TrEMBL record:
Pfam family, one: MoCoBD_2
Domain of life from the UniProt record: Bacteria
PANTHER family registered for this protein in UniProt: ALDEHYDE OXIDASE 1-RELATED, XANTHINE DEHYDROGENASE
Organism from which the protein derives: Catellatospora citrea
Name of the protein: Xanthine dehydrogenase
MF annotations from Gene Ontology: iron ion binding; oxidoreductase activity
Keywords: Molybdenum, Oxidoreductase
Segments forming domain Aldehyde oxidase/xanthine dehydrogenase a/b hammerhead: 23-135
InterPro entries: Ald_Oxase/Xan_DH_a/b (IPR000674), Ald_Oxase/Xan_DH_a/b_sf (IPR036856), Ald_Oxase/xanthine_DH-like (IPR016208), AldOxase/xan_DH_MoCoBD1 (IPR008274), AldOxase/xan_DH_MoCoBD2 (IPR046867), AldOxase/xan_DH_Mopterin-bd_sf (IPR037165)
Length: 738
């Protein structure tokens, strides 16, 4: 039964903000149009690296309607926000517009503010820069890339190499081997809501509206950049039109916008264009994975070595965490993981949905498929035979792991038993080659400090103010459903406020920890509320009657929760806008979400066009807190996995640096016509060891393993193994004629 059929509420109660969103009533940050609004655009650098020898903004400033042109010539009074993964708040440590250095193509060189967007855009095009260029490196193979082992650069325990047993010896002794290298290109989030902000000053208070995953980081980062008190900054982000990791920290335009708004004494809005987006903010770094796997003659995997490098900028070290899941997918005793930075001349890359797990699973699960074929075993049976209940890294149990159940249920739904093992042995009626592939995925369960404030009213409504950001994943629905179920009230009587620093800290929402963190805090506040309402025995609550019985208009409760093993110091760091993350190893156990994907591809034999008519995915995310939004999350993850495997790549410009295909015309993502049947199912077993209401996390695991399942299906269809993403028609054609 699909999740849609399990619940019987009317549609509008399942996704509580659906009506606002589809009617346009939901206002996103740059939908705002305050009085006296001025419009900003950016002028950007056209060289790969060097310095600005001469900047001429006079023609720009002379465009009618231009109010202000800000550049390094103005000696802006701004500090670096620091890099979010280096103890700071920013998408990168480099704050453009402060000096004449150009670190990467597309770096902002001027901010133009005008009465209209048209005037600002015209003026930005008239900003003239003369550069002194320097050699740059923009791909993993470019001369000048600087490589550093991660443990040398950042000696922190959670970024250490993984060494369990003696993988090199076990690999050497194994009778069956795979040794292959897999390439993942740079990729770019293209959320529907472009990055942008509307900012203004109310006296000494700075008001920032920006679609973000971390209003708290923006608030505290701006305080540092502008040297003002965080108490004088309000960051408001009720909706984010797609985060996917790109909106997880303070963007580089916000502080200059704040300065501009102060100078002209008016609100200012900036929407970063689709093309500029590719160079303005973080992206998925290119990575290269060498996987060595060894198995014994019974098809038992005995050794795995996963060596990976990924690109980072010259100015920041975006950490690598690829081994974290590959070491846990199977019960492989001897595991060795090595992670290396490749520093080059781009903006700092960052988190993009399943940032490490998707490329890692593509590489590792492709290699597992190769090994299954080397062992002449069915790839599904091979995976089931290598399952584990113990975390091979920590030696502790997993708090829950229903991966084998995901595989078995998915195989049944998909009809896997009808598969022929031999590649290129299945055909459709139209002559297309048919391939069936399977792969698994995992994603660490994490939890972060969260605060929640619950207000029950005499009118029977319950208002919940909580740490968390709504970025399309449906966190409002998830929270509202929990409150409604807990108190036995109608979900339409629950109001949720998220993404607002006026009501809560607003820790970063990312890493698929949003639901677990917010629900933990709301669950705790509800326990307190029940006490105050005299309803702590459980059961449904007549909220209106209980509040009136207390002779009050409202009854309030608050909770501040921490992840397992976190301390009050962690809570304080979170209140300062820093990410403070617990997991996936907790005292006594480890927690991951799991998923299995089954993919059918059809390869048209003449053109080698690849179609994906159907996918079956079964997830173990603990309790399914909100069935409708959960199923949507997984569908979105599958679609993204299909895009990652067949479409998406940032094409690096070897002449001038940066990305050539910086538009949706040239950076194709899947459209409806590319997507067939997506069958999504959940195990739904609550993980109460990890979490008070049993949720783990879902958003990112949904994508993990999809690309490998597609690549494995293409291999099964054609007999040719593709180890570089995306797999394009020309690659399959080359394989077919080789
Ligand atoms: Mo997610 S890529 O951690 O926002």
């Amino acid at each position: 039964m699909s999740p849609e059929h399990r619940h019987t509420q009317p549609v509008d109660t399942r996704r509580v903000d659906a009506r606002e969103k589809v009617t346009g009533a939901a206002l996103y940050a740059t939908d705002l149009h305050p009085d006296q609004l001025a419009h900003a655009t950016l002028a950007t650098a056209t060289i790969g690296r060097g310095r600005i020898a001469d900047l001429d903004v006079s023609a720009a400033a002379a465009v009618p309607g231009v109010l202000l042109v800000l550049s390094h010539l103005d000696h802006l009074d701004l500090q670096s926000p620091g890099f979010v993964m280096g103890g700071g708040y920013g998408v990168q440590s480099l704050q453009p517009l402060l000096d004449d250095r150009i670190a990467y193509r597309g770096q902002a060189i001027a901010l133009v503010v005008a009465e209209t967007l048209t005037a600002a855009t015209e003026a930005a095009n008239l900003v003239r820069a003369r550069y002194e260029t320097e050699p740059f490196a923009a791909t993993l193979d470019s001369p000048g890339v600087e490589r550093i082992a991660q443990p040398t650069a950042i000696p922190l325990p959670f970024l250490a190499d993984i060494d369990v047993g003696d993988a090199e010896s076990a690999y050497a002794a194994a009778p069956l081997h795979v040794d292959a290298t897999y390439d993942q290109p740079a990729q770019h989030q293209n959320p529907m809501e472009l990055i942008g902000a509307t900012v203004w000053w109310r006296g000494d208070t700075l008001i920032v509206h920006e679609g973000t995953q971390s209003a708290g980081a923006i608030r505290h980062g701006l305080a540092q950049q502008l040297a003002i008190d965080a108490a004088n900054i309000e960051v408001i982000s009720p909706y984010t039109g797609g985060g996917f990791g790109q909106k997880n920290s303070l963007q580089i335009h916000i502080a200059p916008l704040a300065l501009a708004a102060r100078r002209i004494g008016r609100p200012v809005k900036l929407v970063v264009s689709r093309t500029q987006l590719f160079h303005h903010t973080s992206f998925r770094p290119a990575s290269r994975h060498r996987i060595r796997l060894g198995a014994d003659e019974h098809g038992r995997m005995v050794a795995a070595i996963h060596e990976v490098e990924h690109q980072t900028s010259r100015h920041d070290l975006f950490p690598l965490m690829y081994n974290e899941i590959t070491a846990r997918l199977y019960g492989i005793r001897d595991f060795r993981g090595r992670q290396t930075f490749a520093r080059m001349d781009t903006q700092t890359p960052g988190f993009m949905r399943a940032p490490f797990e998707h490329p890692a699973a593509f590489a590792f699960e492709s290699a597992v498929d190769e090994l299954a074929y080397a062992a002449n075993r069915d790839p599904l049976e091979f995976r089931l035979a290598n399952d584990t209940t113990v975390d091979p890294v920590s030696g502790e149990p997993f708090s829950s792991r229903h991966l084998a159940q995901c595989l078995r249920r998915g195989a049944k739904t998909f009809g896997w038993s009808a598969r022929r093992q031999r590649p290129a042995s299945m055909r459709a009626e139209d002559g297309s080659l048919v391939g069936w592939g399977v792969a698994v995925g995992a994603y660490p369960a994490s939890i972060v400090p969260a605060t929640s404030h619950v207000v029950a009213g005499a009118d029977g409504r319950v208002r919940v103010e909580v740490d968390g950001h709504e970025m399309g994943q449906g966190i409002r629905s998830t929270i509202a459903l929990l409150v409604a179920e807990d108190l036995g009230i109608d979900v339409r009587h629950v109001d949720i406020v998220v993404g607002d620093t006026r009501v809560a800290t607003q820790h970063l929402t990312a890493g698929s920890w949003g639901t677990a963190s917010a629900l933990g805090a709301v669950h705790a506040a509800l326990r307190e509320l029940r006490k105050q309402l005299g309803a702590d025995v459980g059961g449904p609550v007549d909220v209106s009657a209980a509040v009136r019985a207390a002779s009050r208009d409202t009854v309030e409760a608050r909770a501040a929760t921490l992840g397992p093993g976190q301390t009050e110091q962690d809570g304080e760091r979170a209140r300062q806008g820093h990410p403070v993350i617990a997991g996936p190893e907790f005292p006594g156990y480890s927690t991951f979400s799991w998923i299995a994907h089954f993919v059918e591809v059809r390869v048209e034999p003449t053109t080698c066009r690849i179609r994906v008519p159907r996918v079956v995915s079964v997830a173990d995310c603990g309790r399914v807190a909100s069935p409708v939004t959960a199923a949507s999350q997984v569908r979105g993850g599958i679609v993204w996995g299909i895009g990652a495997s067949l479409r998406e790549a940032g094409e690096v410009d070897p002449r001038y640096g940066g990305f050539l295909n910086a538009s949706l015309e040239e950076y194709p993502v899947p459209v409806n016509a590319d997507i067939g049947t997506l069958d999504v199912d959940f195990i739904g077993e609550p993980d109460l060891r990890f979490h008070p209401v049993g949720v783990k996390g879902l958003g990112e695991v949904s994508m993990v393993g999809v690309a490998a399942a597609v690549a494995n299906a293409v291999y099964h269809a054609t007999g040719v193994r593709h180890r570089r993403l995306p797999i394009r028609i020309e690659d399959v054609l080359a394989g077919a004629t080789a």
